[in-house]
Design a protein that fits this description.
This protein is an all-alpha fold. The chain has helices at residues 12-24, 29-41, 43-59, 69-84. It contains four helices and no strands. It is elongated and about 45 Å long.
């Protein structure tokens, strides 16, 4: 008898951390399947993914010069603090 090890379910927090790789198509197939399985049962994460897609579409149309250096620096600091937290 062969037993199959299954990957643990992905959490909402993990999805938030992996969403960029998912949208960029930079995930391994097994991780993508886990993420998509979570999306299938989590309405909140589906909503979050939709928000991210809309944000990327909107922000992707902005020229880099439209963001002031101060705003850019603040965004970088917020991102760094989030990654460390």
């Amino acid at each position: 008898m062969t037993t199959t090890m299954t990957e643990p379910d992905i959490t909402c927090r993990e999805l938030v951390e992996l969403v960029t790789a998912y949208l960029d198509g930079a995930m391994e197939r097994s991780e993508r399947r886990r993420l998509e399985a979570h999306l299938g049962g989590c309405r909140s994460c589906r909503h979050y993914l939709d928000q991210m897609r809309r944000t990327i579409a909107a922000v992707g149309q902005l020229p880099e010069e439209s963001v002031s250096p101060a705003a850019r620096d603040e965004l970088v600091e917020v991102f760094r603090a989030w990654k460390q937290g």
